């Protein structure tokens, strides 16, 4: 009986295999499975968007506006005013070695301008790239010309107005290139596709530092107000000084503590520290404050929590799948930059510790994460995961990264 059953199994298995082969032969080689939800998700959040530069325009002595249009076949995804885009770049160094990197830039044009059929575009406004100082900004200044092509990731970030959450009266506190998301919001309001009142308080040291002044002045209306605040010119006829509590109160709806105004803050790190203190003085409820991320600190050793150590170059072991590479990592740069310098692929988007794209696991070593750039989840902290763009080595280290 047992032997009979065995032969039955063997002949049965060969019949199934034959039937399977016949099915494969008669099948359609194309994947005809359609998932409409997935299709919409891909349209709204494409993996990449291919564009070409259509126009370059100076918008102040210190900033330049770049207009991008989709290259044939690509469509610009929808975004919210205030969100950012991350550009992929390959920058050749003096030694001829190419560094693959990314940089986030707030989209300075309005969402409606990206939804105009074959007239669709989006814009970035980039602050002065001084040669030898800004690595990417100076490269963009020198190389992004009409016709240059780029790969972007967009839309990204949570820095946008949400009517269900935010007060109808918005005061924007901007500094430097932090004006760009507010130009996007201002245009969207002027177009009638965003419903709030916006007052932009824009802090600059001197009048020549003001970015997009002509453009912002041109769209002023009862719903969009634009106020320059100049700190370094005593004779300036308008608002002078810093974005302090008195000034913020002056342009708010009633008492800032009442929660009738939402404050959007975007600018360099020192400005955040100052403005945060002023908003605290005014007892603004935390739910009424929205902060954009601001990138890695320029000088990590100035962080008040940074342990006092001399700059050093450490060994960093990077495990990526079955590959294991040992590279050099400066204590003054995040692990993500060390990997970029060594040509190890590691995805980045916000470069501010917020989005989690560059997540890695620390296997060995001592590192420093500035509290301002620590956007990790509780579980990640507990199980030793770090965001490589905001983690600095304090000793020889070993990390494990995802294959991208
Ligand atoms: C959400 C968000 C929105 C932003 N929006 C804007 C905007 O609208 N406009 C704007 O102007 N800026 C914006 N920024 C800032 C922008 O992303 C850049 O930080 C800024 O342009 C300066 O970049 P940079 O590369 O020129 O200078 P840095 O970022 O200061 O470049 C130096 C960095 O590159 C590294 N580096 C230097 N040389 C090399 C090399 N050879 N190989 C590898 N790495 C190297 C350095 O270690 C350092 O980390 C935004 C930032 C964020 C987070
Ligand atoms: S790139 Fe966003 S957390 Fe590192």
Descriptive keywords:
404 residues, Elongation Factor Tu (Ef-tu), domain 3, Riboflavin_synthase-like_b-brl, Iron-sulfur cluster-binding domain-containing protein, FAD-bd_FR_type, binds flavin-adenine dinucleotide, Rossmann fold, 2Fe-2S_ferredoxin-like_sf, 9 helices, oxidoreductase activity, alpha/beta, Ubiquitin-like (UB roll), binds FE2/S2 (inorganic) cluster
CATH topology of the largest domain, which one?
Rossmann fold
Give the cofactors and ligands: flavin-adenine dinucleotide, FE2/S2 (inorganic) cluster
CATH-assigned homologous superfamily of the largest domain? Nucleotide-binding domain of ferredoxin-NADP reductase (FNR) module
Provide the domain count.
Answer: 3
What is the tally of helical segments? 9
Instruction: Quickly give the CATH architecture of the largest domain.
Output: 3-Layer(aba) Sandwich
- Widest beta sheet: strand line-up: 4-3-6-1-2-5
| Strands, total number | 19
**Largest sheet geometry:** 6 strands, antiparallel
What is the mean pLDDT? Answer: 93
Report the sheet-strand fraction.
25-35%
In one word, what is the shape?
Answer: globular
CATH class of the largest domain: Alpha Beta
The secondary-structure element order is HHEEEEEHEEHEHEEHEHEEEHEEHEEE
Distance between the termini: 55 Å
Q: Considering DSSP H and I runs of 4 or more, what fraction of the residues is helical?
A: 10-25%
Give the uncertain stretches in residue-range form.
none
Derived structural class = alpha/beta
Using only CA atoms, what is the Rg?
Answer: 26 Å
């Amino acid at each position: 009986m047992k032997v009979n059953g065995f032969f039955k199994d063997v002949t049965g298995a060969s019949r199934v295999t034959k039937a399977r082969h016949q099915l494969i032969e008669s099948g359609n080689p194309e994947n005809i499975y359609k998932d409409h939800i997935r299709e919409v998700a891909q349209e709204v959040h494409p993996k990449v968007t291919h564009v070409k530069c259509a126009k370059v325009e100076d918008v102040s002595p210190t900033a330049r506006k770049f207009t991008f249009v989709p290259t044939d076949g690509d469509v610009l995804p929808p975004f919210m005013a205030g969100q950012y885009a991350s550009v992929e770049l390959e920058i050749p160094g003096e030694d001829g070695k190419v560094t693959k990197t990314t940089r986030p830039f707030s989209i300075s044009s309005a969402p409606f301008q990206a939804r105009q059929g074959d007239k669709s575009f989006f814009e970035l406004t980039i602050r002065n790239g001084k040669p030898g100082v800004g690595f990417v900004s100076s490269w963009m200044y020198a190389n992004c010309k009409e016709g240059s092509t780029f790969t972007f990731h967009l839309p990204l970030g949570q820095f946008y107005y949400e009517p269900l959450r935010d007060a109808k009266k918005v005061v924007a506190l901007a500094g430097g290139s932090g004006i760009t998301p507010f130009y996007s919001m201002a245009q969207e309001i002027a177009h009638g596709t965003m419903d709030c009142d916006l007052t932009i308080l824009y802090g600059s040291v001197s009048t020549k530092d003001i970015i997009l002044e002509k453009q912002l002045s041109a769209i002023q209306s009862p719903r969009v107000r634009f106020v320059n605040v100049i700190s370094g010119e005593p004779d300036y006829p308008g608002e002078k000084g810093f974005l302090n509590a008195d000034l913020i109160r002056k342009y708010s709806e009633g008492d800032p503590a009442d929660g009738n105004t939402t404050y959007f803050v975007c600018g360099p790190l020192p400005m955040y520290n100052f403005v945060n203190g002023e908003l605290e003085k005014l007892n603004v409820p935390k739910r009424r404050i929205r902060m954009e991320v601001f990138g890695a600190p320029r000088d990590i050793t100035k962080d008040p929590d940074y342990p006092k150590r001399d700059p050093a170059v450490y060994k960093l072991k990077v495990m990526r799948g079955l590959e294991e590479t040992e590279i050099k990592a400066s204590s003054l740069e995040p692990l993500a930059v060390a990997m970029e310098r060594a040509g190890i692929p590691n995805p980045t988007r916000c470069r501010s510790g917020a989005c989690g794209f560059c997540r890695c696991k620390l296997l060995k070593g001592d590192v420093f994460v500035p509290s301002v750039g620590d956007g990790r989840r509780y579980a990640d902290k507990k199980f030793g995961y770090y965001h490589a763009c905001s983690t600095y080595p304090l000793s020889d280290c070993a990390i494990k990264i995802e294959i991208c």
